[in-house]
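Could you join me in thinking about how sequence relates to backbone shape in a protein? Label the sequence line and the structure token line clearly, so we can match residues to local backbone shapes. Once you have written the record down, we can walk along the chain together.
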Amino acid sequence: MRFAIYGAGGLGGYYGARLAAAGHEVGFVARGAHLAAMREGGLRVVSPKGDLHLAAPRASADPADIGPVDVVLVAVKTWQIPEVARAMGPLLAPDTVVVPFLNGVEAPDELAAVVGAERVLGGLSKIFSLVDAPGVIRHINPSDYLAFGELAGGGSARVEALRAVLADAGLEVEVLDAVREALWRKLLMVTSWSALGALARSPMGVMRGQPETRALIERSMAEGIAVAAAQGFAIDLRYRAELWAFYDALPAEATSSMMRDLWAGKPSELEAWNGAIVRFGERAGVATPVHALAYHLLLPMERRARGLLD
């Protein structure tokens, strides 16, 4: 199967490398120092599931250099989706499938508005991986879970074919009958603590270990669950127990990508994460005071990173 990995960072670089190592034709759309390092020394993955090195990956900043593929896996930041959707035309054959693996609930529809709803699946991943150095992906935890499904629900032949290919590449993969609800659950997983952790400048171990911040995370969870329920997704308060089980199992030093970006003065996914909870809450008449406070306090950092504030 022919793949294009649009965004060869910690997530896209990892999955693309596993697919290439399994014998599939993979083209990476990358840029900057990471792209230069991939061209010069290849792409290296350091992982609990086994290290690997692609000596000469096919990589370019221009999708036209890769050409039409069967599947485009989108692994950029959420705020880059409009640009990526406009640029991916050279990758699209008549039956090309586009699968975004991003946090947030809006990316599939943003892509569908440009490339066509019939092409787009919903997707999500649960993996801790990052670009450790240009050309080097570090996979931190043993899991490399990813899941996807038809946005309208139910199964399909193309979904099953993709699942089989990903599983054969050694990835932990699941097909979802209700992918939109799963996207909301994933959004709650990242938003319930990330903005609070960014404000506190503290990793998960501190946030879950202090009674005051643990209580704020609990309130943040409840707000997000209420907003999701208002959108028609059957996520009830029992989901909090699942979230806490996940949080309590994370390494004490765990941080989210949004936290790391904000601290580094880079544009982040604040709008697609906590901003989305606030926006959807306002539309549905659901109060989100914890999310709103965290979102609004982080906005100056976000705007400064985007050059909108001195």
